[in-house]
């Protein structure tokens, strides 16, 4: 199947290095300490952050001097084309763990000892790149909650089909069987916090795809920064008025 | 979540007794309702409803299935509700299951009517394609994103809006096959049938706090309730379902009074919802 | 066992007495004959016995026509370690069906919610403050399902709780009414429930004249609801009397 036609256009009309449209909004769940909606094309994720708050389950606390970060990833029944979501299946558990590790690395947990930060992710629509959308939504929600972080953790995915590296795969391109590289970076610090890949790639190709994904991350970071600045301006305007 | 102090409890109860609630509403006033349809791209119909701080999404998916042997001339409808942990940290893991099944049961009761199908909000016979062999299975999924009281009303409104937004593809049954074989069906991509939702009821929850009832309670007010009655009334004014929640007993005359209050509130609510839903659909078509 | 041999099983059929206007549904409007030949406002004979399970704190057996139910109550006993401290007692209900309970094997999913509905009916009537930090377990088993299962379960559970000595505000009784076409019939059997147009199940505390749980499905008009409610209240108070007699008999039998 042809994922990139001879003119260089993909199935949805994008070029190889074009991302899908991003829509991000802060403060959607009024009860949560911080929340955000993040859309990448048709993938839509809501993140809600509750915390820092008192530790609920003392047995989970390993290190008294650091905050405990907990994460739960769930997909709605209607999020995928066929309605088959079982709660607590292996993929959800794996993704919860991966996202938790990524966010834990960027939150300054030593500033909040004896407390717990809960990050809840709810996928409303899944169309490829849910991992990345979740990390980006969680970053926005944590910023909305005012939790101190080292940097904004952003994530993007890239793949390799028809001998072309492609940025930001959607579901159809992801299920094509080619490689899928998900990268999470801290843009200002220029560090990688998450790197996952399915299938196999030769080394040079991997470096090209990895570089493309990192470029995508930087673009998302710009966008997230814009959204946060806009939000701050709104708050300032309301306070002044 | 922080608990409510004794002073706050008195404030809430006293305010309700004087027809002035904490957010300034009267006892029988709803919070502003916001309806948006077509939010889930690959569902047959979907809607998002926000009542104050409560935010729910409902989606309707139709799949081809086999009618049950007990009722071969009707399609099937199943309602599932999921309480997302984003609404309440206690819903994480298995915490929200009990509330989800209670809500799903109450909604199923309101929408599907009696066992014989009389009084159902959804006409199950319209889901039939070929008697005894092929029918549409409707899966109605509700997701609670943010919870600030009155979940049942919001879910009921969302399901009504989602059903109005539902388009089921036309099916052509090809040539007659022998009785025991599955007939071949051809699902058309082009033509769609809009679902008839004029008989889908609206759910109104009346919460009794002290000696008065309020409509559309917030989470704070619900924590002070002695009992709550959720009544589903359809357009004609008949009761389609009633569920009483909460431990304390109610005098029968109180229940009858609640039913008449609910009918009165439903008239205004039904009209408002209908106009909101058509406005939302118009907005969706423009974009 | 408390039943005196030779005594007729009492029944709790209500009567719409003292009403100046005629009831909406007359027996003459027969578009439905009841399979067991009862009148529309006639309930099945109620057989209730306490002390059915000797190892439980309290238990009761109820046989209403073909619906046979046994409920045993354990407690108050220590809460599991996993549960957090609570200064009111906890109630845990579980309803299960035997595999031979209904004529078709493996009944539908209706019965999963009976546990939570039984819990809702009982939690309003038990005085939880009298047994803090402990749990009362109510286990109900339906031996044969002949219609109105949940109502029989609730009445039987309340009898078992009384037998166990758990403090309650009042005994609770439950009655259900089915609407088929234009007729209301009380205490429906399985065939009637299968093709009913609407169902009305009410749980009430007879002495306090309060309704603790009410569930209505199907389409009802307010006059129908009114009539159904009157029927149920009358039947509930009569059933309450029968339950009290049963408890008195069992205590006098143990005194002897």
TrEMBL record, chain A:
It comes from the Eukaryota. It is found in: Cytoplasm; Nucleus, Nucleolus. Its main location: cytoplasm. Residues 18-148, 151-216 form the Exoribonuclease phosphorolytic domain. GO terms for cellular component: cytoplasm; exosome (RNase complex); nucleolus. GO terms for biological process: gene expression; nuclear RNA surveillance; nuclear-transcribed mRNA catabolic process. Keywords: Cytoplasm, Exosome. Gene3D superfamilies: GHMP Kinase, N-terminal domain (3.30.230.70). Belongs to the RNase PH family. This is Exosome complex component RRP41-like protein.
UniProtKB/TrEMBL annotation, chain B:
It comes from the Eukaryota. One of its GO terms (cellular component) is exosome (RNase complex). Residues 30-169, 200-263 form the Exoribonuclease phosphorolytic domain. Keywords: Cytoplasm, Exosome. It is found in: Cytoplasm; Nucleus, Nucleolus. Belongs to the RNase PH family. This is Ribosomal RNA-processing protein 42. It comes from Cardamine amara subsp. amara. The lineage of its organism: Eukaryota, Viridiplantae, Streptophyta, Embryophyta, Tracheophyta.
UniProtKB/TrEMBL annotation, chain C:
Signal peptide: none annotated. GO terms for biological process: rRNA processing. Residues 42-166, 170-231 form the Exoribonuclease phosphorolytic domain. It holds the Pfam family RNase_PH. It is found in: Cytoplasm; Nucleus. InterPro entries: ExoRNase_PH_dom1 (IPR001247), ExoRNase_PH_dom2 (IPR015847), ExoRNase_PH_dom2_sf (IPR036345), PNPase/RNase_PH_dom_sf (IPR027408), Ribosomal_Su5_D2-typ_SF (IPR020568), RNase_PH (IPR050080). GO terms for cellular component: cytoplasm; exosome (RNase complex); nucleus. SUPFAM superfamilies: Ribonuclease PH domain 2-like, Ribosomal protein S5 domain 2-like. CDD domains: RNase_PH_MTR3. Keywords: Cytoplasm, Exosome, Nucleus, RNA-binding, rRNA processing. It comes from the Eukaryota. GO terms for molecular function: RNA binding. Belongs to the RNase PH family. This is Exosome complex component RRP41-like.
